[in-house]
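User: I need a structural model of 2-dehydro-3-deoxyphosphooctonate aldolase from Pacificimonas pallii for a docking pre-check later this week. Nothing fancy, just the predicted structure tokens so I can convert them on my end. Input:
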Amino acid sequence: MRLCGHDVGIDRPLFLIAGPCVIESEDMALRTGEALAGIARKRDVLLIYKSSFDKANRTAHDSYRGPGMAEGLRILDKVRAETGLPLLTDVHETAQVAEVADIADILQIPAFLSRQSDLIAAAVETGLPVNIKKAQFMAPADTLPMIAKARAAAATDHAPILLTERGTAFGYHNLVVDMRSLANMRETGCPVIFDATHSAQRPGGQGAKSGGDRSAVPVLARAAVAAGISGLFMETHPDPDTALSDGPNSWPLDRLDDLLARLIDLDAMVKSLPFEERQDASIRS
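Assistant: Understood. Predicted structure tokens for 2-dehydro-3-deoxyphosphooctonate aldolase:
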């Protein structure tokens, strides 16, 4: 599949979606984008900038949601123009899709909305690549009819649809990742992405907000790359402890390059194996 001018897939080099969970300020968005663009050049990797203009699914009513759509899209457009990075952002309602599609290179359907038929259809009908995040309550096999729904709305059988694993609810305030899900989700025919930072989240784990365990991010990311994925999703922040959203599970920006370098090496080793051997290994894992 072609994505932002690059070939992506199970036999192509790993790509990265990264950025702060939510836009906090224009200055922070630009500084983070410039740092990510530097990493992309240094590692010769497709890196897609991600940030949200509105976090419509915050735990508490008084949690920070973002600058709003008009200001948020202005900032995101400036980040793209000044860094040269392609842009991914969320849409939460069908009414947002057309305006966001004028700015974004990729539209994202949040996990909690991944069964919203009208929203998926509106996003796919733009012709832009669409990243659908698997809901925390869905089994891997549930993504097959979800993707079929998306393709039914597309103008072509080869619609650019991405599928992201972000962990499955396990009791209260916890997520687990079954690495077999990555192989199972490849049966959709979509490039599969692993969200290493949201998988380390503890939803509602701090009462009025979610917690997380960012120390688990490298472990989960290495396991997913070894299992065979097309791309990796990681929220990153210059100072995660002061982040206005998802700080506990965000990866520190100044540590991203070192982690990505190790993951790129691992990805290259895994993808140097014959596909059948990679497939067998991922299923056994």
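Before docking, keep this in mind: DSSP finds nine helices and 15 strands in the chain.
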